[in-house]
Amino acid sequence: MGTTQVEAVPEPKYWHLRTVLSEALDSEFSVGEILPNERELAARFGVARATLRQALEQLELEGRLQRRRGVGTTVAPPRVGVSVGTEQHLWPGAPGDAWQPSDCTLAAPPAAVADALGTGRDEAVHTVRRSRRTHGRPVAAELLYVPASSVPDLSAIEAPSGPARARAVLRELQRRQLQRQESAVELGSAHAEDAKVLDRLPGSPVLVVTTRYVAGDRTAALSVATYRADTCRLTFGDAGGVQIHHDPPSRAC
Amino acid sequence: MGTTQVEAVPEPKYWHLRTVLSEALDSEFSVGEILPNERELAARFGVARATLRQALEQLELEGRLQRRRGVGTTVAPPRVGVSVGTEQHLWPGAPGDAWQPSDCTLAAPPAAVADALGTGRDEAVHTVRRSRRTHGRPVAAELLYVPASSVPDLSAIEAPSGPARARAVLRELQRRQLQRQESAVELGSAHAEDAKVLDRLPGSPVLVVTTRYVAGDRTAALSVATYRADTCRLTFGDAGGVQIHHDPPSRAC
DNA sequence: TAGTGGTCTAGACCACTCC
DNA sequence: GAGTGGTCTAGACCACTAG
User: Fold this and answer.
1) Which residue is nearest to nucleotide C2 (CA to C1')?
2) Does residue A252 sit within a domain?
3) Could you report the per-residue pLDDT of A44-102, keeping only the tens digit for each?
4) What single-letter DSSP state applies at residue B241?
5) Looking at per-residue confidence, does B94 or B21 come out higher?
6) What is the CATH number of the domain that holds B63?
7) Fewer CB within 10 Å: C terminus or N terminus of chain A?
8) How far apart are the first and last CA of chain A?
9) How far is A244 from chain B (nearest CA, A)?
């Protein structure tokens, strides 16, 4: 027939919409600007609100938009690079690290953590809570598990819990020789507690960084840190500068 | 009044459902097993299919489930750890690296890449496509940008494009001294091409790893690799062993 | 109190896989 | 062709923010 190739695999509407909106964001909006509300946008593009929302979700996932209930949808600033692994390995809590200890308890950790630490499943470990902010915004929440054997000289008299205790545990950690550290990054979703600290809704995507600190050939500490996936770019080996990743040219539709 | 605390902040249904399903996966299903279909599950839990799907989406994001159109929903195996950054820095294509070159072209890169490379926006660079598989499954697709100046001795006569050309570019790269490399990890969504290679739908979540290879104080190559976020755990400093991250105990509801 | 995004419903049809 | 997950609709109501 005379018709030219007709879009063999039709793009879903929400995907097309994502592309259109993405281009509009590049050319017609500036950071911080408020978009029209969802009902308005849906009407303007002639789609159901649910479909529009699917497109917005994608863009939020990619860090292009920020949505806040009761407020509106705004254009997000570029992701901030947060340094996660540096060349020289340091204990958590070393001078100059970016974390703020907020609490410390002594309790049996989740089974998976106990296994990774090589402690018994009912053995109590110090659990330090810390959080991290950048440009005044919360970017990460951490649980740091430190077996009692890693901080043998920790005074039992000092504050039994709370921030002071957390600092004491971190202080004691510095006295040991750090052999090496290993990290892993994976995608997760924020649980209620993390979500609260990160100022997001539960279920929002986070990058989970698990770090094993090795000393004396044993796992001396284990950190599980969750970073907001929408606003963060995790840098290893200090790559603060690299700033790629806006879509390469996509086919028209 | 006499009523006990009534769930001050009611959990969304889909979130509750996620928790229930997650626990069921732990206790009643084994890897690879097929779940009942969505209509069935929705009916069983007394919710609309869309709500159930929201819960499944979460679990898929967390790497617990795998859904395939026309087939069904299966219990996913644990994420595979893929080594991304090692202690000793090596050029891409060094002996033993996990990537399979598939193509190479010479063209002007996206503007953002040109800027990061410090080349002119219209200057052509070698663009090597590579892919990476683990246990027979595709896990990542990469675009590697190599400015002509980084491979000065590259013979113009050899295959002008295709896998042979890609290997030639990588081979030439090895001759230079690698100073250091810097990586960044962020969340993205798969474009059509990547989605195809990764055997996923467009828009599915990916971990984008941007690596800058520095030689002679200049960016000698730039790699943009997209990993399937559902099946991969990226390891730095070789942390193959760490395997945490199943939800900590969550509050009942 | 008005306006926003977040949740949820009950349907419909489509694209894909496998028999 | 039967059965699966993927897309889409047109509504409703809720939770939150801010004037």
Assistant:
1) A70
2) no
3) 999 999 999 999 999 999 999 999 999 999 999 999 999 987 667 889 988 888 899 99
4) T
5) B21
6) 1.10.10.10
7) N
8) 21
9) 6
